Amino acid sequence: MSAARPEVAFVVQRYGPKVTGGSETLAREVAERLVASHRVSVFTTCALDYVTWRNELPEGEAQERGVLVRRFPVEEERDLDAFNAFSDTLYDRPHTADDEREWLRRQGPCVPRLVEALGREAARFEVVVFFTYLYYPTYWGLKAAGARSVLVPTAHDEPPLRFDVYRELFALPRAFAFLTPAEERLVRRRFALGERPATVAGMGVGVSAAPDVAGFCTRHRITGPYLIYAGRIDAGKGCAQMLEFYEHFRSARENVPELVLIGRMALKDLRQPGVRYLGYLPDEEKEAALAGACVVVCPSPYESLSIVLLEALAHGTPGLVNERSEVLKDHCLGSNAALFYGNAEEFGEALDLLLRDSRLRAAMGGNGRAYVRERYRWEVVIERWRSLMAAAIR
Questions:
Q1: What is the signed CA dihedral for 114, 90, 301, 378, rounded to 10 degrees?
Q2: Which residues have C-beta within 8 Å of that of residue 245, sequence separation ≥ 6?
Q3: What digits encode the pLDDT tens for the residues 90-109?
Q4: N or C: which end of the chain has fewer CB within 10 A?
């Protein structure tokens, strides 16, 4: 083993530039930035879609931007309706440890060959970093290779976090990397982490200096001010409620800006006045969309970081976020660059204030840029990651 470039392994459920998702993006961004000082191997699946875990990428090894990516086939596709029905029999109801392990298998992605390979090879890695507490590869991978492990939980307050199987999982890592102070507080309330090393490592946010806002508006025939939502468009992300609140707001006022949605669509029959769906956009287009908006709406009650909000703040676009997410509310209070709401009336009042007060929007925009620059620059973030991995080895 080279003393100059020690070997580390990352374990994550999906990986690659075509994969969208907060923890998956974090894993790729950190891995690609660590290759200057480490030899990085990623253990992942052949899946692109987190709903079905269908195998779409080739099995085997490939070099991707200096990272050795090893993909293993998923053995079972997931029927989301059947999985959700089974989940409802467990959440807040009496059940057994075997029920929880069965739930974990059905949750997926079921990749026993990945776990077996990791168990055989773990000793050659100085650190094994696991991304996202929720999935099969993390639970079984920690059991197979937990001696020098770092867990990146990307946790939020959701029913599975209360399963006893995760009490077992959180006892295994040697160290923890959190995305926000709110996430660390949540995990420490639920699990006994003791004196094991832990840090709010976070994630860096890099944005271009001058995104092509005018070109974006021309290409998509946007002629006036607009609100933006970016991410998976589904009920679990708070989108159904956001659309309901927006419809209520629009019905009571004139000249309301359009609500533009970008990302993967999971809602059915979305036909609503004032709402435009642009589909999944490449990163440059998404960045221009966020920079050109008058407000970014982040309606999810469950967030472990919210990259979209931070990218928008970095461009000076103020936010309107769901107060049920402690992480999002922390961003609001820490940055003075976003407002939060708890119901339809507060949504409307906050949005009305942001839309009619251009001086307020400008002040919040400056606050947002400073907040991201001071806390979420990649140079600072990667040093936190390196320090934590060194602490895990010690």
A1: -20
A2: 341, 344, 347, 348
A3: 998 999 999 999 999 999 99
A4: C
User: Helix 239-251 and helix 344-356: axis angle, to 10°?
Assistant: 60
Per the structure, the count of domains in the chain is: 2
Contacts 24+ apart (CB under 8 A), 340-349: 341/245, 344/244, 344/245, 344/248, 344/249, 347/245, 347/246, 347/248, 347/249, 347/320, 348/245, 348/248, 348/249, 348/252
Rounded CA gap, 274 and 390, in Å?
51
Residues 163 and 291 in one domain: no
Would residue 50 count as lying in a domain?
A: yes
Average pLDDT over residues 333-339: 97
Whether 261 and 222 have beta carbons less than 8 Å apart is answered as: no
Identity of the residue numbered 140: W
Distances (CA, A) of 243 to 42, 44, 258, 297: 38, 35, 12, 11
| Residue 370 and residue 382 share a domain | no
Are 165 and 131 within one domain?
A: yes
Contact 294, 227 (CB under 8 A): yes
- Looking at the fold, whether 254 and 345 belong to one and the same domain comes out as yes
